[in-house]
C-alpha cells in the first residue's frame, strides 16, 4: 500500500537505530503529540473569540456538566478538574471578572465556597461548547466514524493502563 509521506515519515527516515517495535512507538508518540498540538492550537484560536482560555473552558465544562443549578463546591471542582487549588481559584476569579461565574458561601457549611454559572455564564458556556464541538468535528471528521471509534478504543486502552479506570466508574 503506497501512501503519501507526512512530516513524521521524513523525521523517521533519518532515524536508523531502534528496532521495528521501538520505531512504531516513536512514530506514534510523534504523531499523537503533533495531532494534540494542532487540536489545542485550533481550539485556543476559536476560544479567543470568546475571550477565554482553554483552562477556563474546562472549568465552564465542569459546571455545565453538573447540570441545573450549574453549581459545585470549590472542593468538588478541584476534584473534577485535577488541578491545584491555586489553579482553580485563579480560573474562578478570571471567569468571575467576566461575570460568567459567581462565588457564594455555602449556607449549609460556612467553610465551603460554592461556585455557580451565572445566567450569562450558562449562555456563554453553551456557545463555547457548540463552537468546540464544531471545531472537533471539522478537524477530526477527516477520519471515518469507524476509524474514530477504533482510535478511541485504542487510546482508551492506553489511558486505562496509565491512569486506571475513572473514579465515577467504581
From TrEMBL:
Q: Keywords on this record?
A: DNA-binding, Transcription, Transcription regulation
In this chain, the stretch annotated as Disordered covers 1-24
Q: Which PROSITE patterns match?
A: HTH_MARR_2
Q: Which residues form the HTH marR-type domain?
A: 25-160
Molecular function per GO: DNA binding; DNA-binding transcription factor activity
Q: Where is the composition biased (Basic and acidic residues)?
A: 1-10
InterPro entries given for it?
HTH_MarR-typ (IPR000835), WH-like_DNA-bd_sf (IPR036388), WH_DNA-bd_sf (IPR036390)
Per its UniProt record, what PANTHER family does this chain match?
Answer: TRANSCRIPTIONAL REGULATOR, MARR, TRANSCRIPTIONAL REPRESSOR OF EMRAB OPERON
Name recorded for this polypeptide: MarR family transcriptional regulator
The organism named in the record is: Amycolatopsis acidicola
Amino acid at each position: 500500500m503506497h501512501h503519501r509521506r507526512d512530516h513524521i515519515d521524513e523525521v523517521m527516515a533519518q532515524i536508523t537505530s531502534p528496532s521495528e517495535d521501538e520505531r512504531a512507538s516513536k512514530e506514534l508518540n510523534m504523531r499523537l503529540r503533533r495531532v494534540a498540538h494542532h487540536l489545542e492550537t485550533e481550539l485556543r484560536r476559536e476560544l479567543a473569540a470568546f475571550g477565554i482560555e482553554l483552562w477556563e473552558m474546562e472549568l465552564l465544562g465542569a459546571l455545565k456538566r453538573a447540570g441545573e443549578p450549574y453549581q459545585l463546591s470549590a472542593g468538588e471542582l478541584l476534584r473534577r478538574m485535577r488541578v491545584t487549588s491555586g489553579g482553580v481559584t485563579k480560573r474562578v476569579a478570571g471567569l468571575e471578572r467576566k461575570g460568567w461565574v459567581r462565588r457564594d458561601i455555602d449556607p449549609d457549611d460556612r467553610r465551603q465556597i460554592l461556585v455557580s454559572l451565572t445566567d450569562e455564564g450558562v449562555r456563554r458556556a453553551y456557545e463555547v461548547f457548540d463552537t468546540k464541538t464544531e471545531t472537533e468535528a471539522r478537524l477530526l471528521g477527516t477520519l471515518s466514524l469507524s476509524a474514530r471509534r477504533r482510535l478511541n478504543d485504542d487510546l482508551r486502552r492506553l489511558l486505562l493502563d496509565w491512569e486506571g479506570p475513572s473514579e465515577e466508574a467504581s
